[in-house]
Known about the structure:
disordered C terminus, disordered N terminus, 21 strands, seven-stranded mixed beta sheet
Amino acid sequence: MRRSRHNSALQVQDDWPIRKALTLSDVDITHPFLTLPRQPVETYILVHLTQLERDHLLNREQVAINAQDDDTGDVYIMKLKWRGSYYNLIGKWGRIVRSKGLDVGKEIKIRWFNGCLHFSVPQQQVLAVPPLQIIPAPVVHHDQWPIKKVLTLSDVDTNHPFLPLARRSVEDHILVHWTPLQRELLRNEEQVNLNARDVDTGDIYVMKLRWRGNYYNLIGKWGKIIRSKGLGVGKEIKIRWANGCLHFSVPYEQTVVPTTIPVIHQQEEWPIKKALTLSDVDTNHPFLTLPGKSIEDHILLYWASQAREQLRNELQINVNARDYDTGDLFLMKLKCRGSYYNLIGKWGQIIRGKGLQVGQEIRVRWDNGYLTRTNLCAVVQIRKRFHLRLLMLVQYMAVGKFRVLPLKWTFICAVCSLCVELVD
């Protein structure tokens, strides 16, 4: 009996649901903090905290937690801080980096157990990335492009020109070639001048790299580059660092996504899918977080330029949202948060009405001027879909641009009701 309990305890200790390869910013002792992705933290850590502690985090406050180093047995009092799309572990992290000799590429494993955060970085671990060495950048062949990105709607917006680049890619392939002084300058002043060369034309621009927490923005002459190269949504930009300069290329032979906006015909097409997290179903602070790229590629793409400009300037805009499962309509707001968007308004009512829980999948699309949602995993039956389409027709004619006479309206309702009975 004792042996079985001991074996089960060992099995629990071997379970590490959160794993991360350390990046350059994770081991920077001048600004010590460990960045952790949002969904794993909410799934495996926040579920063990009290409601009061979770409320503190959502209010942009920080929560003190005990953290144990399972490799040494040392216990630290640290703090967990919410940063929107990710969390930071701060406090004694700089001391941990120095004492354990942590470096880029080492893997840290994290779990929550017995009211305490446990972490481990085995010393016998083989580094996935060699230690940082300050050496001149080698000459790179033109076919080696470690950073590639398909341009989105916000990337080619000349009214607010900037190119956001993923933090991990910039730190692994650009900042690794910088001197410690340059990296410190970027941390303190949040932006650094650099030379950028267009490999396609040979033109050189003086641009700026700006740190924005979970990503970096390339600003300066980006608006001029968009106009001169005719960049559009769907084109791929390739970036590398070589010989003290940032190089980029957008080959002219690439095809651009058609400017004519396609109309979604199939009701089964749900381009945005998300498993609900703890913060998504919190009725005390009700909002649904959606990734920025998905919103820009599958929702904002269908909007008029005036609506996109309003969202850009005011950071929020009213939208009509339809629950595809019930046909209910809600007036909600889409709020821009930088690298992600929040859907607010009636979200708390939706959580309670549908009984949403962590792990359920929500599917979202933009269709005929409505933000449409469903949390059903199965495809909606044809009978129900036809019923909803008829209701949509009636509601559209009721609130549409043209007026309907009372007699005509009565006739339309009678026809629609008869059709529904025939389908059922």
